[in-house]
Design a protein that fits this description.
single chain; alpha/beta; Alpha/beta knot; 5 helices
Amino acid sequence: MKITIISVGKIKEKFFSQAISEYAKRLSRYCRLTMIEVPDEKAPENLSIADMTAVKNKEGQKILEKMPQGSFVVTLEIDGKQMTSEELAQNFEELALRGSSHICFIIGGSLGLGDAVSSASNLTLSFSRMTFPHQLFKIMLLEQVYRAFKIIKGEPYHK
């Protein structure tokens, strides 16, 4: 299986990068992982709604250009479907059975995702109704993908 994660913004903090590298290494036993970072747009504090939409659309265009053709696209959004780790693993298995061997996860920038990216999504997923920094969320996503593969393989990790 192939997993692609497209995220907006760069990871700058060393401790985040180290955690991301650790999960990427662990996942190499289960899938081919590709992580793509697209640059974020400058977004000052007091943006109008029109300016926020413009920023999300610009970031969205960069995301859409990187989205792998034929992949099953999962956007991570606050209002998305919440599921357990077991349900995520089951979704991976069902996708594989249906012939979808490439899953692309999308993590938006500080303002969220533009409508074009949300519309291109096959599944909108939420880990929580809370907001997380994208650097931390990338680690959380990698951990849950790793956990899903461990559940599928019946290997000890998930308790």
